[in-house]
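Progress report, Aim 2. The chain analyzed during this reporting quarter is listed below.
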Amino acid sequence: MTGWLLSTLRSRLLLGVSLGWLVLVAALLAYSHLSGGALAQRENLTHLEYEAQLIAKQLDRSIHVRQQALARLRPSLVLDEDLFTQLQRQEGLLALFDRLMVFDAQGEPVAAWPPFEHGGPNIAARDYFHHVRGFRRPHVSEPYVGGETGIPQVMVIEPLLDDEGRFLGILGGNASLHDGTSFVNLRSQRIGEDGHVVLTTAQGQIISHPDPAYLMQAVPAADRLPLLDRALYGWEGSGMGEQLDGQPALMAFRQVWSADWVVGVFLPLSQAEAPVNRYATELRWVGLATVALMLPLLWWLLGLGLAPLHRLERQIERVGRGDARRLRLHTSMRELHQVADAFNRLEDQRRDALASREAREAFLQAVLASSPVGMFLADMKGRINYVNPALEAISGFNVAASRTSEWVRRIHPEDRPAFIEQWRATLERGDDHHLQYRFQRDDEQLWLEAQVSRVELGDTALGFVGMIQDITERHERETRQLWEAEHDPLTGCLNRRGFENRLEEACALHRRESDKVLSLIMMDLDHFKPVNDTAGHAAGDELLRLIGQLLEESVRQQDAVARLGGDEFALLLPSCPLERATEIAERIRRGIETLEFQVDGHTFRVTASIGVSNLSVDDRDGGPLVKRADRASYRAKHQGRNRVEVQAGLSKVSES
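Predicted structure tokens for the chain:
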């Protein structure tokens, strides 16, 4: 009877495992009331998420305060005066930063307080300088080592631009990572006895850690810290994993979006499980006693049952090394013979499939490498495992060897949220990713079109394939065509179609926000026909261009100047009260009146009959506004020309 029971692998394993599990289940049932680890873990994770959120909000506020302070200082800086004195007087800013600095458009230091010992470094080659010069927006730099001090630090940067938006340089304030009073230094913040806070950049560089040896170091690989790796891509949440020192811990992550930083709060698992360990001690003694009783029996039964498996293992190793092509067993166990037969069939199929796969992979590699379209392959977690040469040429850097966050960092800040949202939807739900966005390649901005789809084999998802094309020329062509469709080719002002579009947009905004005001100036040139009749249409066109230039220079950037046809012009002034619009119209009238136009020995002077109106709360669209301004301009022309008339109900402002 005993020999029959032990004649099959199933009966041997069943006998040994059953005896062991009977004792184990009895012990677990007796002490199940002592386990509360799951509940303690959930409560600790909730607390960690709350702490991480508080710290992230605090950092966001600190960065916002510093960016606002730099933004308030920027208009008051006079670059051609004593910048050292101007910076020295900023006591409030010097309380927020270790040093205030001004660099010119070539990255050369202009001034700093406290001053540099050796004149200061040239930062033209640094990534943060390229970023601010390219995007011309406030920025928080990646951590770097100061050229003179050798101290790790970060810089909050405000671009310096002239009135026409040209890049003049940067205004920056730096904060040391070693300084215990710095807003970036979180080493003093503790969670319980051993918990701590870690601050990293989205590029995976450590900014703050209780152990100074980790500062400026890269975050370990994703297979070691998968939750932190997800957080570097924008994920927020909590879970369990390893600390940087390899110790198991509970952790929570929050994003500091204003600086592309990640806050991580870590609580060692030993501290989190301390309340439960006291109860586990008794269970451990019971378990030890149980193992002591069961070990000899299980050792004998499993050793007896698994001996044929060891022989099978050695034969499989020989097949794997290529020393044998098939398994040949010498045993009476039916199950092992069935396993060997199944293995031999699978080995034959594997060899055939391997040869076929190698051929297909070689063909696919050749197709991808020769494709003019940028292509990449990614696994189900979004990790890039193949990039073709066309995509390397488009991106300008080694995409396969870089983190996905490097690609995200190069996307224009205004397009980045949409990209991240679509990429998350693609990874989590398998949605198709189709998006156009701006991309920074070195000092050049490109327009890219990306299409990503999930690859499936039956019901199994294998990964993702993506195609990326450089559509910069097409986008510029479409933008140019749109501009030409809405602008007058002679003067560069809006044409009637462009004017009507801007008027419709302004009226829609006025309906949504009733406190907004909108004014309109319409004008006809007086005595323009003699210019065409005497000097020709080419001279008339040149005069119209001069008038268009004068109008553009007389209004703000957000105002719209349009040539409606012939010598008729219109100026749409959002957020401009009627009184201010009337003053602008009078200034334009005087400018046109004093304009002398000479051609072929003839001197011409023209004037303008101008009408001014504003949008009423009763107006449903811009039609009544245009009619009132048009009537006012006709009234100005009929009452003697060269004058400004305001819509009915208000007095005339001026006349020649």
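Confidence is low (pLDDT under 50) at residues 649-656. Residues 311 and 329 are 8 Å apart (CA to CA). These observations will guide the mutagenesis work planned for the next reporting period.
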